[in-house]
Amino acid sequence: MKLLCTDLLFHWHAGSLYKLFMLLLAVFCTNSINIHAGLNGLEVGQTVVISAAVLIHNVMRIGSSKDVEVQQAHEFSIYLVLPFLTTSLALLAFNW
What we know:
By secondary structure, this protein is mainly alpha-helical. The protein has helices at 16-35, 42-64, 68-95; strands at 2-6, 9-13. Strands 1-2 form a two-stranded antiparallel ribbon. Helix 1 packs antiparallel against helix 2 (42-64) and helix 2 (42-64) runs antiparallel to helix 3. It is flat, with a radius of gyration of 16 Å. It starts with a strand and ends with a helix. The model is unreliable at 1-9 (pLDDT under 50).
């Protein structure tokens, strides 16, 4: 874990801590959706919000990164999130 100072902005490189955080976040998101599964349409709405946030995050990271590998990784994530988001939006429209 090290701090880099570039253009008066501080960036924190968490390394493996970031991977652990993303793993815990994925578990939390699936469990929180599962808790609301008994309520009509609530889990679909929550899924749309989470997948839209992931999509926005990926687009922002592609725009801010100059590293080709980072951009390709976020493009791959977009390829996975887009069908998930669109099918969830269709389900939300029928479930509303």
